[in-house]
Design goal:
- The structure holds 2 protein chains of 2 kinds.
- Chain A has 2 helices and 6 strands; from the N terminus they run ββαβββαβ.
- By secondary structure, chain A is an alpha+beta fold.
- Chain A has a 6-stranded antiparallel sheet.
- In chain A, strand 4 and strand 5 form a beta hairpin.
- The longest helix of chain A has 10 residues.
- In chain B, helix 11 crosses helix 16 and helix 13 packs antiparallel against helix 14.
- The N and C termini of chain B lie far apart (68 Å).
- By secondary structure, chain B is of the alpha/beta class.
- In chain B, 62% of the residues lie in helices and 8% in strands.
- The chains are: A alpha+beta, B alpha/beta.
- Chains A and B meet through helix 1, strand 3, strand 5 and helix 2 of A and helix 3, helix 9, helix 12 and strand 9 of B.
- Strand 5 of chain A pairs antiparallel with strand 9 of chain B.
C-alpha cells in the first residue's frame, strides 16, 4: 500500500535507505516499546539489512541497532530519503 | 544507606555492580533477561552501604515486570547511581530526566566512556553536569576506569525533584541538552564493524551462524573429551584408584559396607562406572565424566553471551522459529538448555506470549539434552562409534522440527514479532567470561554433585532389595515389547527423574547393544524431565499446561523410541 502525502512504511523502504520516522500506528504498547529503543517521530532511521523470506529488518538509529519483525515494520510510517552509500547495503 | 543502580538495559549496570561490591553476578550481553535484582555491600567513606542492581528499563513508565520492579525499588533507596551509556546518550537521558523528577539524590555514571570516544562521540562533561544539575562521572565499567572517582563522588549526589514533565517536554529538553553537550565526528567504517555487519546480513550471517554452531559443537565435544582423557580420568586412575582399592580390601571385598562404599567388583576389579559405590561411581560420574563437558560447554556459551553474538543468531533464525510458533529470541533459552534445562526454562521469560513459552519449554524438555546427559551419551554410546551418537542427535533435531510445527498448529494463542536491540560486540570479554564460567561450574558442583552422592547409594540399596526388579516385571511389555530393551532398563528411566547422568550410567552394566543404547538415550532425553526441571516448569506454566506438556513428552518419547527400535541399525 502506498500512502498519501509521501509516507511509506519501514517495510517498503529499501535496504540502505534513510528516512525520517513520522508516526507509529500500532497502539500505545508498541509505540512505547519503540520509543524506548529510540524509534520515535522525528528520528533519522537507516534501514540496514533484512533477512530472507520476509524475516526481520535491522535498522539503525543513532548508535543503536534494532531488529524488528515485518509486522512491526508495517506499522512504522516514514518520510523516505536517499539510498545511502554502499557500506550500509545489505550484501 | 541504600544505593540503587538504575539505567537502561545494556548500560553496564551489572558489571559496575560487581566492581562496586566485589560480588559476582551472571551478566549477559543481551537485553531483557535480568528480571530479578542482586544486592551487595560496599564502603562509602566510613559508611557501609547496601548496593542494589535494579533491572534495566528504558523508562519508569515501562510496562511489564522489569518496569514494575524498578519502580518499586526506587521508593526504597537513599541514593541513585544512574548508569548512562555514553554511546547512547540521547536515548538514555530519558530515564535520567525521569529520575531527576523523583525525590531522591542522583549521581550519573557516564559509562562506556571509552567506546564513545572511539566511535567519534565527544561529550562536554561540564556542560552536561550543569544542564542536569547533578554530578556526572565518566566510567569504563569493563576495565574499572573511573570507578574510584565515582565512589568518592557518591556523597555529592544531588536531589533535584524537578517538576513532573510530559513525555514531549522531556524529549524537547533532551534535544536541547544533546545539542549543547554532544558532538559526533563522522568517521569511516572500521574493519571490525564490517565484520560485525556481516553477522546480520542474510547470506554471510547464515554462513557465520552455521560455522559458529559447528565450531561450538566440535569444541565442546573434543575439548571435553580431551579434558576427560588427559586430566580427569588420569587423576582418578592414578591418584584415587589406589585409595579406593585399599578401602575395598580393608572392608573385605564384599558385604553391605563394601557394596555401599565401593560397590560391586566387576571381574574382581573396581569399575568407576559400573561398580556403583559412593566412593567410586558417585564421584567418578560427576567429576570425571560430566565436569569436563560442563567446563567446555559453559566456556563456549559464555563467549557467545558476552561477545553479544546471541541476539544476531536470534535475527538469523527468526523466520525458522516462527514456523514453530515462536520468534527468534527463543533460540537463546534453547541454547541454554544444552547446559542445563532449569535455567533454560527460566530464560523463556523473555518470550512474551503464553503460547510461545509453552512451546519453547515443551520443546526444550523433549529435544534438548543437558550437558550432563550429553556427556554420558558421548561417553557410553560413543564407545560403539560416533555414528550412533549422530543418530541420536539427528532424531532429536527431527523431533524438534516435527513437534515444533505441530505445536504451532495446535496451541492456541499468538506469536509476537521480534523486536530486539542488537548490542555492540564486546571483543575480549575474557575476565567476565572466566568469572562466569567459574560461577556456573561451582553451581554444578554444589547443586548436582550432592544429589549424585545421595542418589547413588539409594539406587544401590533399592537395587539390592529388588525394588526395580519388581517394577521391571510390571513395565516389561512397554520396555521390552515396544522399545526392545531388557526389562531392567526401567530402573534407568526411574533414576532419570533424579539425575539424567546417573540414569545413563545405570545402563552401562546392562550390556546393551548399540541400537538399544540409542533407543534408551532417546527415551531418556525425550520421555520425561528431571525433577528440578519439572518443578520449574510447574511454577512457570501451571498445572494444566504441565500435564499437557508431559503428555506430549511421553507420547514423543515412546513414538521415537518405538520407531528407532523398528529401524534396521
Amino acid at each position: 500500500m502506498s500512502m498519501e502525502n509521501g509516507l511509506i512504511t519501514l517495510s517498503q523502504m529499501k535496504d540502505g535507505q534513510q528516512a525520517v520516522v513520522s508516526a507509529v500506528e500500532g497502539g500505545h504498547g508498541l509505540e512505547e516499546k519503540l520509543t524506548a529503543m529510540g524509534i520515535r517521530p522525528g528520528k533519522l532511521i537507516t534501514r540496514f539489512c533484512s533477512m530472507y523470506l520476509r524475516g526481520p529488518i535491522t535498522v539503525r538509529i543513532d548508535n543503536v541497532q534494532v531488529s524488528l519483525g515485518r509486522g512491526i515494520a508495517d506499522k512504522i510510517l516514514v518520510v523516505p530519503g536517499v539510498v545511502t552509500d554502499e557500506n550500509t547495503a545489505c550484501r | 544507606m541504600k544505593i540503587l543502580l538504575a539505567g537502561n538495559p545494556g548500560a553496564g549496570k551489572s558489571v559496575l555492580f560487581s566492581h562496586l561490591t566485589g560480588s559476582h553476578v551472571i551478566s549477559d550481553n543481551y537485553p531483557g533477561t535480568a528480571i530479578g535484582f542482586s544486592s551487595g555491600h560496599m564502603q562509602v567513606g566510613q559508611q557501609e552501604a547496601e548496593v542494589i542492581d535494579t533491572p534495566g528499563v528504558y523508562s519508569l513508565e515501562s510496562s511489564g515486570k522489569a518496569g514494575e520492579v524498578a519502580r518499586q525499588m526506587l521508593r526504597s533507596g537513599d541514593i541513585i547511581i544512574n548508569v548512562v551509556n555514553a554511546t547512547n546518550l540521547e536515548r538514555d537521558l530519558y530515564l535520567t530526566l525521569e529520575l531527576l523528577e523523583e525525590r531522591i539524590p542522583v549521581i550519573v555514571a557516564l559509562n562506556v566512556w571509552d567506546d564513545a570516544r572511539h566511535i567519534g562521540i565527544s561529550i562536554d562533561l561540564i556542560a552536561l553536569e550543569r544542564m542536569l544539575g547533578v554530578p556526572v562521572m565518566p566510567t569504563v565499567a569493563t576495565t574499572g576506569e573511573g570507578i574510584k572517582d565515582l565512589v568518592e563522588s557518591i556523597p555529592r549526589a544531588v536531589m533535584r525533584a524537578n517538576p513532573t514533565a510530559t513525555r514531549e517536554e522531556r524529549w524537547a529538553r533532551i534535544g536541547e541538552i544533546i545539542g549543547q553537550v554532544q558532538q559526533v565526528t563522522h568517521r569511516h567504517h572500521t574493519f571490525g564493524e564490517t565484520l560485525a555487519d556481516a553477522t546480520v546480513k542474510p547470506l554471510s550471517g547464515t554462513l557465520i551462524a552455521l560455522l559458529v554452531a559447528v565450531s561450538v559443537f566440535l569444541f565442546v565435544r573434543y575439548g571435553g573429551d580431551a579434558l576427560y582423557r588427559f586430566v580427569a580420568d588420569p587423576i582418578f586412575k592414578m591418584l584415587w584408584l589406589p585409595v579406593v582399592s585399599w578401602v575395598s580390601t580393608f572392608t573385605g571385598s564384599s558385604g553391605f559396607l563394601h557394596d555401599i562404599l565401593i560397590g560391586r567388583l566387576v571381574n574382581g576389579r573396581i569399575d568407576f562406572v559400573e561398580s556403583w559405590g559412593l566412593l567410586t561411581t558417585a564421584l567418578y560420574v560427576p567429576f570425571a565424566l560430566v565436569l569436563p563437558y560442563i567446563v567446555t560447554f559453559y566456556f563456549a556459551l559464555g563467549l557467545l553471551e558476552d561477545t553479544g553474538y546471541l541476539p544476531r543468531l536470534a535475527v538469523m533464525i527468526d523466520t525458522v522459529m516462527h514456523r514453530f510458533g515462536m520468534h527468534g529470541y527463543a533460540i537463546i533459552p534453547t541454547i541454554l538448555g544444552f547446559g542445563c534445562n532449569v535455567p533454560a526454562m527460566l530464560a523463556t521469560r523473555v518470550l512474551e506470549s503464553r503460547k510461545e513459552r509453552f512451546i519453547a519449554m515443551t520443546l526444550i524438555s523433549i529435544a534438548v539434552p543437558c550437558a550432563s546427559l550429553q556427556a554420558l551419551i558421548l561417553g557410553i554410546v560413543g564407545q560403539h562409534g560416533i555414528q550412533y551418537v549422530a543418530i541420536i542427535y539427528a532424531t532429536l533435531l527431527l523431533a524438534w522440527v516435527i513437534i515444533g510445527i505441530l505445536l504451532n498448529l495446535m496451541v492456541k494463542g499468538f506469536t509476537p514479532e521480534l523486536l530486539i536491540e542488537i548490542p555492540p560486540y564486546r571483543l575480549f570479554p575474557w575476565r567476565l567470561t572466566v568469572e562466569k564460567l567459574w560461577l556456573r561450574v561451582r553451581g554444578f558442583i554444589v547443586e548436582a554433585v550432592p544429589i549424585m552422592i545421595i542418589a547413588i547409594p539409594v539406587i544401590n540399596i533399592l537395587n539390592m532389595v529388588g525394588v526395580f526388579q519388581a517394577i521391571a516385571n510390571f513395565t516389561a511389555p512397554v520396555i521390552s515389547g515396544l522399545l526392545g530393551l531388557p526389562k531392567d532398563a526401567i530402573a534407568a528411566i526411574f533414576v532419570a527423574f533424579f539425575r539424567m547422568d546417573a540414569a545413563m550410567a545405570l545402563l552401562a552394566p546392562l550390556g546393551l547393544s548399540a541400537k538399544q543404547l540409542v533407543v534408551s538415550s532417546i527415551v531418556l532425553v525425550m520421555f520425561f524431565p528431571c525433577i528440578a526441571t519439572l518443578a520449574i516448569m510447574f511454577r512457570e506454566m501451571g498445572f494444566r499446561s504441565l500435564l499437557k506438556s508431559l503428555g506430549i513428552m511421553i507420547l514423543a518419547g515412546l513414538t521415537a523410541g518405538g520407531l528407532i527400535n523398528l529401524l534396521p541399525i
